[in-house]
Amino acid sequence: MTDKTKISLTSRVYHEHSSNISIDNVTYHVQTEDMGKKTCKIISNIYLKGQIVKSKKSDYAHIIKLHDCDARLAAMMERHHKSVIDAFIDEQSKKQRSKSDFFSEIQQLLRRGNSKQALETLREALTKFPGDPFLLSYYGCLIAIVENDIREGIRICEESIKSLDTSMPFGSEFFYPVFYLNLGRTYLKARKKADAIKVFLEGLRHDPDNKDIKWEMQKLGVRRKPPIPFLARSNPINKYIGKLLNKSS
């Protein structure tokens, strides 16, 4: 529960629970009622300005013949009321997540090696931000790697790069290498090493110090040019400068 979410209990009697929830200064009224032993139903309705925005029912027929039915029903209603409130707050918080919130979660999942969950989070993000090239770039890469949908993954990654000049805000060139990194990884999944190297080099053109791309190039065995081109790679001067550069990268 965030600081922007507040719950106030307005009433609590045997057959009814009633609370007010304030989420980002919007107040919702939650009411849980026993519909009677003829139906054996508990219903919770969430209201906004008098209109029902969410509703959930539970059945308690399985306890109706027990000797402590009333006590069980009271506890069940309280749990039902609380679970409806918790679920609604969680649902609303997900709806309010920004693009950066989604991206932070995706990055954390990828760092932990949880690519499948990262892909599911991407799908959720794209329902809120459809057509976003940044999210699509990661999505294309992950459906190729996780779901082996290589052709579609390459298509999506390539399309996201084509849309850079028209859909990315001014000053976002800093993120361009990520698009080439994702496309390159997708090419590698397709065993297109030459294409992967080509786009990795394009990514380094935008950011020569990008560690992720340099790591992919290193795994491929691609060696960068010697620090002093007119001297042989084996020359002691090139070797010494190379060591210094490796330490600083």
Number of discrete helical segments: 10
- One letter per element, helices H and strands E, the order comes to EEEEEHHHHHHHHHH
The CATH topology label of the largest domain is Serine Threonine Protein Phosphatase 5, Tetratricopeptide repeat
Given the helix and strand composition, which structural class is it?
Answer: alpha+beta
Largest sheet: 5 strands, antiparallel
Query: Please, what is the average pLDDT?
Result: 83
SS strand fraction? 15-25%
Radius of gyration: 28 Å
- Cα distance, first to last residue? 42 Å
* Beta strand count: 5
CATH superfamily of the largest domain: Tetratricopeptide repeat domain
Shape: elongated
CATH architecture title of the largest domain: Alpha Horseshoe
How many distinct domains? 2
The share of residues in helices is 40-55%
Q: Can you identify the CATH class of the largest domain?
A: Mainly Alpha
Report low-confidence residues grouped into runs of 5 or more. Answer: none
What does this protein structure show overall?
There is one protein chain. The chain is of the alpha+beta class and 249 residues long. It folds into two domains: 5-95, Beta-lactamase Inhibitory Protein, Chain:B, domain 1 (2-Layer Sandwich), CATH 3.30.1450; 99-248, Serine Threonine Protein Phosphatase 5, Tetratricopeptide repeat (Alpha Horseshoe). The protein has helices at residues 69-95, 99-111, 115-128, 133-146, 150-162, 164-167, 176-189, 193-206, 211-220, 236-248, and strands at residues 5-13, 16-23, 26-34, 41-48, 51-59. The protein has a five-stranded antiparallel β-sheet, with helices on one face. A hairpin with a 2-residue loop joins β1 (5-13) and β2. The longest helix has 27 residues, at 69-95. The mean pLDDT is 83.
